[in-house]
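Problem 12. The chain below contains 178 residues. Write out its predicted structure in token notation.
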Amino acid sequence: MKQQRISLWIVFGTLLGALIGAVAIQAEAQEQTTTVTSGTQVAIEYTLKLENQAVLETNVGSTPFTYVQGAHRIVPGLEKALEGMKIGESKQVTVPPEDGYGTVNKEAFLEVAKDQIPSDAQTVGAQLQGQNASGQPVRARVAEVKDNTVIVDFNHPLAGKTLYFDVKVLNIQQTPGQ
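Solution.
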């Protein structure tokens, strides 16, 4: 009788240990899916401002922005700052130009004859759209208008700018195959 009780306690202890182990493994798996890590699909709400605090873009109150962490589909500084965040966590992120849209590249300025630019676009700040030799869309901005030429800037409009994000992680999911 005493030996039966000991056997039952051993069986009970073994089952309890296995159950605790399974719960720990499940909790660890849950932790991985609720933390922004490479390969996870992340839904965020954000507001983007410049140094003057003017709001450039926001999706607060509308459709969340979704991306895959590590796929390099968002500016590197923001992607790096989101790494390790959890669902519901908010953060203010400052992204310097080197980790955003880059510094201003002086070689991205091109001086062209005025007759190459539509007359209604020959004003500083005018946005131009065209195609490169391979047919890819190209965007530029008129930086300066001279007597016979126009200086066109092919840098990204946010090149050289420090970006200020208010960001909140709304959801994290494993991507298929992860």
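Discussion. The two ends are 52 Å apart (CA to CA). Students who got a different answer should revisit the alignment rule from Section 12.3.
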